[in-house]
Amino acid sequence: CPSMKRTLSVFLLFAAACGRVEAPAPLFPVPNARQLAWQQLETYAFVHYGLNTFNDMEWGYGDTPASTFDPADLDCDQWVRTFRAAGMKGVMLTAKHHDGFCLWPSAYTEYSVKNSPWRSGKGDLVRELSDACRRHGLKFGIYLSPWDRNHPEYGREEYVAYFHNQMRELLTGYGPLFEYWFDGANGGDGWYGGADEKRSIDAKTYYGYERARRTINELQPGAVIFGGTCADIRWIGNEEGRAGQTNWSMVKGSGDERLNDFTCGESDGDTWLPGECDVSIRPGWFYHPREDHQLKSLSRLIDIYYESVGRNANLLLNFPVDRSGRIASADSARIMEWRRALDAEFAHDLFAEAQATADNVRGGARRFSAAKAVDGRADTYWATDDGVTAATLSLRFEQPRRVNRILLQEYIPLGQRVGRFAVEWLDGDTWRPVETAEEMTTIGYKRIIRFAGVTTPALRVRFGQARGPLCISNVEAYDAPVLLEEPRIVRNGAGEVTLAAGDTQAEIRYTLDGTEPGPSSELYAKPFPMTGRGVVKALVRDPEDRRTSAVASRGFDIPCGAFRVKELPDEEAVGLFDGDVSTVVYLPAGVAGFSADTGEERTFRGFAYTPDQSRWASGVVTRYRVSVDGRTAAEGEFSNIVNNPVEQVVEFEPLRGRTVRFEALSLAAGDRPGIAEFSVLTE
Ligand code: FUL
Fold it and tell me: Could you give the CA distance from residue 172 to residue 488 in angstroms, rounded to a whole number?
């Protein structure tokens, strides 16, 4: 019957149109709900605070009196307001570090805030911070060090019970937690209630991590666990904030002990264990006045963002709160600069107005079309047919656009898939690869590639290899402005000057005649010689919009690379004069100073000494004597050098001669004078 036939064909057509093309099957392992929610936080703060803060330590021994914990002006609202303004989504607090001192009045120990003068022993820092987080809409997490250098029973069963009891206090007393940290440093020297000895444990079995996991999952179902043997997330393998360019969220096995590659994960891993990058805004985790001048630069912090969040990891950025109980103002100012710079980089997604097409769309279905990769939604994605693991996504602008960033996201609820891709731009009729130092391998939750800017009507992403059909939830493109950070000016011992900008897209303009640099000043191309005295002034400039940075200025006296040092072989002596503070020279044991033959008679009028800048600096000279051809030119103290180990410049009455001698009369620590840099001032 023709009318029935017609009805049937209309029905079939309709069914085909509505027929749901199945989503790609999940490719295991996949994240659980907790891990997914955590991944979306991207950046959150870490706070290291405790007795170490007041005693200038990183790893307290466990015997520092609780009474030394005495912040005068502790203000968790100030911390949390700063973090929120910086775009951080949560805060992790060291409720107890390795020294065993508790920032909450634990019922199980006397070694806590309750025996400190702070808030007359009535304070609870875990409470104050968790309350502040709730007030300002940030998530809250806990670090509880398994290693406890104070506890008399550490190493024995009694301590394990204590540790679990404390965990319960923290899991039940302070509202919802988003993350729970078990630090990896375990066992060793400690005070241990006065035993003063070394205690070793087997971290895999001693702490009862399986039981801990059950407790945490039961009491805090939303908290991911870091560390231990039952982790949900993994350490990235360094404390520099750097994930691998290739970074799979999977690993083989779940415990740390089975992790082969912390930094890159494993493409054939059977466990979802995404990476977290923990790094401090200063060299130390705890506050030390001597690191006030070593706050990470803006460009370093921007790099950290790209090397963590931009490489499929989360960023846990530490703030060493100071002795007064506040984030030091330079640190808050820096992190706000960071926020502003990132906001400017990601201000306007150029792909939001681009036309997206793909050479393969799963079942031809609209639900999986290329447009889903640019619809701004995290729950939709472009997908390819089963068996299609290489395909191209093209993005065409209405007008040519300038682009230097691309951001890509996979739909990770179905697993991480992409193993290789390439980004190309259309130059006339030719597709050219973008210029970047990033290897385009994995994507995962988020990958951001910085590349040399191009102006183009279209870009395309060629996915070359994947573990299964592609599921791309999001691609974005940006035209990030040049980062206008003052350039760094360095001169080596041979008198060669190097200028460095924090952004490879920047141009550097400089002068050598003392005048202010401008757009028509010399363009810096490569290191240049400056063999006499003089001043270098330089700025960074955006060649496109012509904005400029502040001017950096550095004066130099004669280069000292040719000086001959009596007490040291030449290859060691170079470290004294090379302009590189990371090469520290320690004089041989029993040698208090060095004599430099400067090659010819000159009139000297001063010198500059820079001590070891490293975290565990030794040999810092606190009293000195300088002489010229045996006559004392200056003798004195480098006041406050321990707390503020910057370059020390000393001028003296001009003295003529050829040999300069620098002598350490006393040292802050160690018994061999350490010299990161030494130079002279001449007339
Ligand atoms: C390390 C600890 O030993 C450091 O002191 C710091 O807490 C860092 C975050 O983890 O393992």
Answer: 50
Closest C-alpha to 561, from 495, 648, 629: 495
Compute the distance between CA of residue 585 and CA of residue 436 in angstroms, rounded to an integer. Answer: 37
Q: Is 397 in the pocket of ligand 1 (CB under 6 A)?
A: no
- What are 496's strand-pairing partners? 529
621 C-alpha vs ligand 1 centroid, how far in Å? 29
The pLDDT tens digits for 316-354 are: 999 999 999 999 999 999 999 999 999 999 999 999 999
CA distance 402 to 542: 14
Ligand 1 binding pocket mutation candidate from 48, 58, 179, 183 (most atoms within 8 A of CB): 183
pTM (2 decimals)?
0.92
**170 neighbors 104 (Cβ within 8 angstroms):** yes
State whether the beta carbon of 184 lies less than 6 angstroms from ligand 1.
Answer: yes
Q: How far is the CA of 495 from the centre of ligand 1 (A)?
A: 40
**What local confidence, expressed as pLDDT, does residue 616 receive?**
79
Residue (of 29, 23, 28) closest to 384 by Cα position: 23
pLDDT tens-digit series, residues 7-43: 545 444 444 455 689 999 999 999 999 999 999 999 9
Distance CA 189, CA 182 (A): 19
Residue with tokens 């415990």: 255
